[in-house]
Design a protein that fits this description.
This protein is an alpha/beta fold. It has a single domain, classed as Rossmann fold. The chain is 38% helix and 25% strand. Strands 6-7-8-3-9-10 form a six-stranded mixed beta sheet, with helices on both faces. It has a four-stranded antiparallel beta sheet with strand order 2-1-4-5, covered by helices on one side. The longest helix is centred in the C-terminal third of the chain and has 16 residues. The relative contact order is 0.18. The structure holds adenosine-5'-triphosphate.
Length: 239
């Protein structure tokens, strides 16, 4: 009974995920859950497979083994565009399309979506930018502003799960704090969040659960357990 309930648990379930790239195993038999309404952080060294893991979660990359379930359904059975609306990925490099911020936010929205300025401004506000940004040419934005526009763009699609790759990399402390508050609020509204980050302060502020990757395998724990270990490892690297 318990396992049947677990299978249908709302959120993302990664089970036995294995990926090799360039003939080298990157992820090995990786399993963890991201329940809706929670924030999970992945804190692991550069090159350990964080982006690879996120890309498997919305089918940008096909794993060599294992499954990813969304609300109990294998993501392989969900049409890719539909899946990527439900599981939004905010990538490490903010890619801007030509045109204004409005054009960027509205791109790809369908009749089902609210593409009016009020809805776009709400998404911008959640990402920490005011409505005046709607008319700004996207190619004139700073790196941090671009990062927040890509977060807003994912939010306009009304995702159920949000995957973020280094969401604070281009942000100062105040902007990172704002994004952290936004992620906590989104989780409070029922969204599931999975964020890969090097920013231990950010991770500690937002996480309900934390994961690190060791030799391609997941070690899961409370933020205190995992982040304490990551801090100690960094200290050892510096010595
Ligand atoms: N297409 C590819 N072919 C071969 N190796 C790859 C490919 N893509 C990634 N890799 C390697 O796979 C490993 C994991 O990469 P990934 O980008 O997932 O790491 P990461 O933990 O996100 O790193 P970072 O924190 O630096 O962004 C790295 O060693 C990388 O060099």
């Amino acid at each position: 009974m318990a396992s049947e309930r677990d299978e249908a648990a709302p959120g993302l379930r990664v089970h036995g995920l294995s990926v090799a790239l360039g003939g080298r195993p990157v992820l090995r038999d990786l399993s963890f859950d991201v329940p809706k309404g929670t924030v999970t952080v992945v804190v692991a060294p550069s090159g350990s497979g964080k982006s690879t893991l996120l890309r498997c979660c919305n089918r940008l990359l096909q794993p060599d083994g294992g499954t990813v379930l969304l609300d109990g359904a294998d993501v392989d059975g969900i049409e890719a565009c539909a899946l990527r609306r439900r599981v939004g990925l905010v990538g490490q490099v903010p890619v801007m399309l030509p045109g204004t911020v409005r054009d960027n936010l509205a791109y790809g929205l369908t009749e089902r979506d609210d593409s009016g300025d009020a809805a776009l401004a709400r998404a911008l506000a959640a990402a920490g930018l005011d409505a005046s940004f709607l008319d700004r040419p996207a190619d004139e934005l700073s790196g941090g502003e671009r990062a927040r526009v890509t977060l807003a763009r994912a939010l306009t699609r009304g995702p159920e799960l949000l995957l973020l790759d280094e969401p604070t990399a281009a942000l100062d402390a105040a902007a990172a704090g704002h994004v952290g508050e936004t992620l906590r609020r989104l989780a409070g509204d029922g969204l599931g969040v999975l964020a890969a980050t090097h920013d231990l302060g950010f991770a500690a502020a937002v996480a309900d659960r934390a994961i690190t990757l060791r030799d391609g395998r997941a070690v899961t724990g409370t933020p205190e357990e995992i982040l304490g270990g990551a801090d100690a490892e960094r200290g050892a690297e510096r010595r």
